[in-house]
Structure formats: C-alpha cells, structure tokens
Amino acid sequence: MVDDTEKAIFALVEKYNAPSIFTFRRFRLKPDTDLNNDFCMDPLDAYDLMEQYTEQFGIEPKDIDFEHYFPDYGDAQDSLTIQLLIDSAKAGRWLGK
User: Fold this and answer.
1) Residue 6 falls within a domain, yes or no?
2) Eight-class DSSP state of 19
3) Does residue 52 contact residue 12 with C-beta atoms inside 8 Å?
4) For residues 26 and 19, what is the distance between their CA atoms, to the nearest angstrom?
5) What's the distance, Cα to Cα, between the start and end of the chain in Å?
6) Rounded distance between C-alpha atoms, residue 15 and residue 41, angstroms
7) pLDDT below 50 — which residues of the chain?
8) What phi, psi does 64 have (nearest 5°)?
9) Domains in the chain: how many in total?
10) Distance between CA atoms of 59 and 93, rounded to whole angstroms?
11) Is the CB of residue 63 less than 8 Å from the CB of residue 93?
12) For residue 80, what is the DSSP state?
C-alpha cells in the first residue's frame, strides 16, 4: 500500500516526466528508478527537484552531495532512486551520500 509520503514524492518526480518525443509515452516510474541512469533526468531539473524535495520534506540540503549522483564528468558514484527519496523523507534526514 502506498502511503502519503510515497504519493507526494512520486507526484514531485512526475512533474518532470514529460512524454518521449519518439514514443509519446511517459517513463514508468517505480521505487527503484534511478533518476540519473534510468530516467535520464537533466541535471538542472534534478537540482530543481532536490530543492523542492528538501523544502517539502524538511531534509537539510547541505547533507546531500548532489555531484555524487549527478557529477559534471564521469559516472555517478551511487544511484539517486525514488526509494532513496522516500526512505529519507520518512526518516526526516538524508540517508544517502
């Protein structure tokens, strides 16, 4: 069963889920969706999402190393998944790097 926190986070991410220009379909979001590698989220959109997320769920922004998940160069060190957003919101603090 999906609780209110999960619904709110999926709704927040869904704002950035525009239909594909090739298939005209939206990406199917799941808890294990990696916003960088699976969803291919633009880093500027991801940063905007994280600003909204920290404000809405009371997470301290300085605890999140954004470049760990969306580096300027190279591959991400860890996955920024929807589940990480959910778990951190429920814990009231950032659980990732």
Assistant:
1) no
2) P
3) yes
4) 4
5) 28
6) 12
7) none
8) -105, 120
9) 1
10) 5
11) yes
12) -
Q: How far is 71 from 83, CA to CA, in rounded Å?
A: 20
pLDDT of residue 27: 75
Q: Among residues 95, 90, 91, 87, which one has the least CA distance to residue 69?
A: 95
Range of the domain at 49: 30-97
DSSP bridge partners of 34 = 81
Burial 57-94 (b: 16+ CB within 10 A, else e): bebeeeebeeeebbeeeeeeeebbbbbbbbbbbeeeeb
Q: What is the pLDDT of residue 1?
A: 57
Confidence (pLDDT) at 35: 92
In a domain, 9, yes or no: no
Q: State how far the Cα of 23 lies from the Cα of 21, in Å rounded to an integer.
A: 6
Q: Does 12 fall in a domain? A: no
What's residue 91's pLDDT?
97
What distance in Å separates the CA atoms of residue 41 and residue 6, rounded to the nearest whole number? Answer: 19
For 35-56, how does the pLDDT look when each residue is reduced to its tens digit (9 = 90+)?
998 888 999 999 999 999 999 9
Residue 73 belongs to some domain of the structure: yes
